[in-house]
Each structure stands twice: as structure tokens, then as C-alpha cells.
Design goal:
Length: about 250
């Protein structure tokens, strides 16, 4: 059940166009840092200044160019906050950045997008070779990246692309929990050693080694609780042949 909006009044900081969400509001709605909440901001006259979703990056403050244009430093505003939600896309971006730094590469939003799109293409190509089909991209609204089918069975696919060797990848909590709930129908595809090259002044992702794991069994011994770092070398379900027969328990 979605909590009802919680109203509060607050003063915009005198030195910047930002404000703090009071502790009582965060407690009542169960808001934590990283949550995305919908905000409706009004001035003293009741005029709506801003109405959209914002992510609490610092845990309690609201700021950013989109909301700043509606705020006057030192002014009093009336706010309704609702619908706390953790954005999986933010978590995945943080996981990618941590993963690439561990591998010795400097991450950026542009490189993240290039690696992500290239890895998705490689994953579909590899799974197609193994007899999977009917692919649907679910990355925009689910904690897994793809669904696919084989012999009438539906599978959930998590794709991890990296410029590194892929000996470990970082999972979000939602990704790990979903895989542990559906191990026999969850597939992990790791596309490692992706190269970022310059072609006519434009960055492109090339190459990569694709590995497929099914069933995707996440054992506690292979997880480290940072978001989750999965030690791939401790898993033994990699599919290596296109015509491999998959046994279902």
C-alpha cells in the first residue's frame, strides 16, 4: 500500500537553492538516502512551483538544477512528499562505477552506456547461439535486463558488462535477491574485456568475452556485502556449448 502524501513546511537555505526534508517526514514515509520520492512544492500563495520525482542523494536534502529554478533562497515553501522508492537504475550505475574502479578503469556515464548496450547485444547473440529466443528488454522497469524463452520456458537474464576480466562483478541487492528466488530460471551473462575505442572521433565499444551461467546459483561464499560482489570463479554453471542440455531440478 502506497503511503499517503506527508505535508510539511520548510525554509529554503539562505545561501543555496536547496532544502532539507525533516526527519519526521523521512521516518513517517520510511525514506532513506537513495530513495526517489515525489514532491509537490508550493509557495505561500499556493502556486505549484515544482511537481516531480527527486532522489535524496545525501539522505535528507533536495537539490539540483531542476528544482533550484523554482526555489528562492531564504523563502518558506510548502511541500508534499510521497511514494518513496529506490531507483534500480541509480543502484546499477553505482554498481558499474564501483566494478570498473576495482578493475582499474575510470568509469563515466558515457562509458557505462556504451558498455551496457554492447554487453546487451553480446548477451543476446550468445544466448541465441544456445537456442534461446523471444527476447524482451526489461532493463528500464525491472531488476533484470532481459527475458527470453527456450523450449517454452521463461528465463530472466542479468547482463553484466565490464572492461575488466570479469572475475567478479557487483550486483545490486534487488538483482541478487531475484536471482536467489528464481535460480533455475535466472541466467547471468558476463561480457568481459570490452574495449572502448575511438572511431572517427567517437567512442565505441568493441569485442568482449561472453560467459553464460545457468542455473544462476548465488551461494553466500561467492558474495561479498558491498552491494554484492559475485565471485564468478566459485560458480560452476557456465554454459560453453550451444547445444548443451539444461537439466531442470
Amino acid at each position: 500500500m502506497t503511503p499517503d502524501p506527508v505535508p510539511f513546511d520548510v525554509q529554503v537555505y539562505k545561501t543555496s537553492r536547496a532544502f532539507n526534508v525533516p526527519k519526521r517526514v523521512r521516518t513517517e514515509l520510511g525514506i532513506r538516502g537513495g530513495d526517489s520520492i515525489h514532491l509537490t512544492i508550493r509557495n505561500l500563495a499556493g502556486e505549484v512551483l515544482f511537481s516531480d520525482r527527486k532522489t535524496l542523494k545525501s539522505g535528507s536534502e533536495i537539490y539540483g538544477t531542476d528544482v533550484a529554478s523554482a526555489l528562492v533562497p531564504g523563502s518558506k515553501i510548502f511541500v508534499e512528499a510521497s511514494e518513496p522508492r529506490f531507483l534500480e537504475t541509480d543502484a546499477e550505475a553505482d554498481a558499474f562505477a564501483a566494478q570498473e574502479r576495482v578493475a582499474g578503469f575510470q568509469p563515466s556515464p558515457e562509458i557505462h552506456r556504451l558498455v551496457e548496450l554492447h554487453a546487451m547485444r553480446c548477451a543476446q547473440d550468445k544466448l541465441s547461439e544456445m537456442g534461446f529466443g523471444v527476447f524482451h528488454d526489461t532493463s528500464a522497469h525491472e531488476c533484470y535486463d532481459l527475458t527470453c524463452e527456450r523450449k517454452g520456458e521463461l528465463y530472466y537474464v542479468e547482463v553484466k558488462g565490464t572492461q575488466g576480466a570479469g572475475t567478479s562483478v557487483i550486483l545490486t541487492a534487488n538483482e541478487a535477491e531475484h536471482a536467489m528466488k528464481y535460480p533455475q530460471r535466472s541466467i547471468a551473462v558476463i561480457v568481459s574485456q570490452i574495449e572502448i575505442v575511438d572511431e572517427n572521433g567517437k567512442a565505441q565499444a568493441k569485442g568482449g568475452r561472453s560467459r553464460v551461467f545457468l542455473p544462476w546459483t548465488l551461494e553466500l561464499a561467492s558474495l561479498k556485502p558491498l552491494q554484492y560482489e559475485w565471485n564468478v570463479s566459485k560458480s560452476h554453471q557456465e554454459l560453453t556449448e550451444p547445444d548443451v542440455q539444461i537439466e531442470q531440478n
